[in-house]
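Help needed: design a sequence for this.
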């Protein structure tokens, strides 16, 4: 079980003078509200005394007016405190959102995490601070001040309140320990569901092409059920804690009321003092009770803070294997090798409960097909292979001269959504090989059935390839890959938008062209799997070698 975090996370005020100043205003407002509350209590006592005992109706009316003014002033001060607490939360959310987005520009962050944490996740920090900061400040200012006020009216009532307050921390610890793990679990399930939606939306074309669009319904339904279950478990704790706290406060108020009644009966306490004590007694507990009740909800925001910090401050040395960044400078290194060895190579995607590891030797001229349902982790494994995300294990090339790390310069990669940049069609096709000849470009276009584009090589491609159909973009990306001289071809759903006849022609053609290459392909295609000498199936967050 995780350790319980403090009621208000220290990171809220850490290294921020602006948030400290804003919080200072909240403190002043809460102290002022406590003074107004004590005065309201005395005015309530005056009203009762003048109505019940001294029979002074005009004096009672004046006291009622004065009470109303004090009460409204207290409400205004509390509104100001909430406003400044909101500003503290907004500043914290902006800081963490900008830190995460800035980090993601130069580092790989899972789309599902980035999408949720930079939107709903960061926004949850605003409500977290706005709700929790005032009640926590009230716990350390309003509660002690009201206790001093009660002490000035009678020692017995002060002792009774202290006993009641002594029980509250025990309940808060129990609530905190029960809530912390549930909040982390809820965040993980939320991000997992978000990831499944993103993967399904991105791969809807592929799923429809292979008539598997309905397959994802089960996965998404299962994730949604998990989110409902984790949310209900948090709400159950909140309900139980609320009942426990309300019961405790009711018992203490009842004990104080009985004590006041006894003292009033024997003349040991004035009606004015008794009414004032009874009026402020619930308010002694209100800030601490509020903090305890808000604690369960605040843990969602603390889990977001922890997740963002773990992303932007993670230690790269925790990952083992080849350092792809060191290989990027070797962009022109090409040498022949005999095979590619995966040594417990894999990727861990915590928010989707994926932990893939693969050990296999793929010889030159052979294919490795990675199969599985959409969202199972096939693309995550390929992104790790091409250096777009962190990985575990290692992958090496073996030749007659020994074993060496696989370099990025040895990989030609075609992602599921091929990228095209604002340049000529020629430049886009020659992305991997700037020295590509016209003959090679023509042959590649002819191979993918786009010979009619030979006369449009100088045409500027709209970013993303929007001036080509999805099928044309798919085939152009295949052509770009086979034009390269790189010994390793990596394809992510290369024939997803092609009709069965064209798919058959291109896959069998690729098999013939790749006799001196090593091919890794993530696919739903049964034909691609049947053409592969090695098949790894990704299912339920694990990877299993079928052949």
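Sure. Designed sequence:
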């Amino acid at each position: 079980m995780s350790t319980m975090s403090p009621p208000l996370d220290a990171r809220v005020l850490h290294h921020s003078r602006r948030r400290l100043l804003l919080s200072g205003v909240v403190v002043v407002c809460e102290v002022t509200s406590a003074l107004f509350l004590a005065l309201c209590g005395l005015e309530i006592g005056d009203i009762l005394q003048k109505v019940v005992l001294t029979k002074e109706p005009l004096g009672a009316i004046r006291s009622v007016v004065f009470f109303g003014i004090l009460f409204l002033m207290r409400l205004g001060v509390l509104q100001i405190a909430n406003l400044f607490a909101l500003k503290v939360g907004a500043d914290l959310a902006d800081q963490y959102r900008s830190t995460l987005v800035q980090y993601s520009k130069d580092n790989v962050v899972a789309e599902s995490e980035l999408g949720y944490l930079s939107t709903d996740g960061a926004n949850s920090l605003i409500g977290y601070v706005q709700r929790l900061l005032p009640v926590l400040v009230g716990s350390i200012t309003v509660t002690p001040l009201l206790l001093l006020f009660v002490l000035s009216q009678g020692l017995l009532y002060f002792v009774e309140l202290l006993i009641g307050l002594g029980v509250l921390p025990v309940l808060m610890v129990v609530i905190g320990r029960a809530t912390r793990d549930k909040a982390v679990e809820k965040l993980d399930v939320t991000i997992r569901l978000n990831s499944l939606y993103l993967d399904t939306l991105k791969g809807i074309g592929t799923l429809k092409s292979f008539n598997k669009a309905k397959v994802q319904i089960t996965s998404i339904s299962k994730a949604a059920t998990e989110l409902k279950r984790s949310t209900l478990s948090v709400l159950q704790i909140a309900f139980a804690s609320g009942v426990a706290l309300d019961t405790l406060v009711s018992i203490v108020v009842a004990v104080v009321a009985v004590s006041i009644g006894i003292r009033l009966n024997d003349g040991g306490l004035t009606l004015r003092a008794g009414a004032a004590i009874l009026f402020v007694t619930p308010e002694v507990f209100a800030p601490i009770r509020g903090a305890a009740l808000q604690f369960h909800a605040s843990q969602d925001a603390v889990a977001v803070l922890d997740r963002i910090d773990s992303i932007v401050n993670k230690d790269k040395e925790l990952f083992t294997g080849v350092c792809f960044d060191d290989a990027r400078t070797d962009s022109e290194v090409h040498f022949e090798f005999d095979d590619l060895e995966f040594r417990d190579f894999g990727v861990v995607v915590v928010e989707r409960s994926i932990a893939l590891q693969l050990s296999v030797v793929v010889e030159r001229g052979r294919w490795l097909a990675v199969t599985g349902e959409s969202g199972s982790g096939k693309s995550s494994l390929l992104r790790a292979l091409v250096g777009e995300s962190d990985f575990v294990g290692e992958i090496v090339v073996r030749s007659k001269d020994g074993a060496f790390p696989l370099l990025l310069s040895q990989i030609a990669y075609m992602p599921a959504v091929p990228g095209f940049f604002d340049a000529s069609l020629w430049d886009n096709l020659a992305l991997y090989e700037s020295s590509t000849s016209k003959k090679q470009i023509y042959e590649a276009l002819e191979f993918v059935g786009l010979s009619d584009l030979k006369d449009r090589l100088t045409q500027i491609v709209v970013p993303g390839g929007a001036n080509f159909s999805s099928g044309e973009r798919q085939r152009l990306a295949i052509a770009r890959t086979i034009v390269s001289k790189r010994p390793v071809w990596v394809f992510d759903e290369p024939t997803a938008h092609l009709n069965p006849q064209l798919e058959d022609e291109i896959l069998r053609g690729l098999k013939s062209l790749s006799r001196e290459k090593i091919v890794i392909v993530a696919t739903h295609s049964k034909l691609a799997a049947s053409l592969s000498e090695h098949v790894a199936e990704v299912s339920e967050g694990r990877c299993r070698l079928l052949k």
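The first strand starts at residue 339 and ends at 349.
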